[in-house]
Amino acid sequence: MAAVEVHKFAQCITCHAWSRDRSMLAFCPNNNEVHIYALLQGKWEKLHVLQKHDQIVSGIDWSARSNKIVTASHDRNSYVWNLEGSEWVPTLVILRLNRAALCVKWSPRENKFAVGSGAKTVCICYYEQENNWWVSKLIRKRHDSSVTSVAWHPNNILLATASTDGKCRIFSTFIKVVDAKESRTGPSADSKFGEQILQLDLSFTWSFGVRWSPSGNTLAYVGHNSMIYFVDDVGPSPLAQNVAFRDLPLRDVLFLSERLVIGVGFDCNPMVFAADERGIWSFIKFLGERKTTSSGPKYGSQFSEAFGKLYGQPKQGFNNDTNEHSRSRGGVHENCINCIVPLGAPGSSKVKRFSTSGLDGKIVVWDMENQEDLAEYL
């Protein structure tokens, strides 16, 4: 197994984020609070409880440069938290939403952050120095359903979104008072704020996690149909491919390098995908897979496996003479993994450590350093 640290902090965790030096951890224990823990003398201790939201906190991101925490909640609000002395002081961000805020991410330069919502809207928020507050500009009438995930391109301008309408979209977020003209390169060179650069219709089901590769040349996102999609050369003529797998759908995705991706979701176990020398992506293995014995060929379907598990029965093949025991779900995690966060240096082209959190209340740190079979992809 690649897991090096396993911490049980709550009954359920909706999202988490780390400070720059990884000495402090912020997470939401499936309520309206954010708990901040610090590693003191080898033991995790609770230092702060951020209480300002009225409903479940659905997104947290901790900026590496400015040490600010941004939170988003089902109460339709977002707060930017600043550490003043020994206290975290919140600043309300007016999002102008009529539905829940579902996700939030700082931009690479940390001069903006994006909030996806159930109002079919994306809010791009930035700090207005003159009035000493955070304001938002909205990307409206582009999505047909909830925006479940957002991801910033390394150029700080392009933003990718995943939505439950099954589509992945890429927008320009160029704001004159915030962004420098020279930052507009490639597909976003002449684009205006909110302009849609590309719409990907690869999935026919809900789309969830979306992420750019470290160089920004590849985009990956996942669908609720147990498929992961990879898109190269984002622009007028993108190159797309998909990888289908028999296991349960993914919820989030992370690039460890240009050729290695980790997907997490309902299988409770991180899945590894890699690209060969030709750029063809494929599923490699589960990180925490338990070895199980299997006799005969694989028969049956994912539905029959789930149906059998529901009633406490092993998966039955179509051949009465051959029974295959289902691969044990999970390993370190015991419930759906809904969040994955890199632990490498911000902007690094290679990430060898990352953390996951899930509905089992655990936060697990994974180390890829000793994964010799994956060394060529890292």
From TrEMBL:
Keywords: Actin-binding, Cytoplasm, Cytoskeleton, Repeat, WD repeat
Record bears the keyword ATP-binding: no
Major site of localization recorded for this protein: cytoplasm
WD repeat feature ranges: 50-91, 140-172
Alphabetical list of Pfam families matching this protein: WD40
Assembly notes: Component of the Arp2/3 complex composed of ARP2, ARP3, ARPC1/p41-ARC, ARPC2/p34-ARC, ARPC3/p21-ARC, ARPC4/p20-ARC and ARPC5/p16-ARC.
Protein's name in the database: Actin-related protein 2/3 complex subunit
Organism, scientific name: Prunus avium
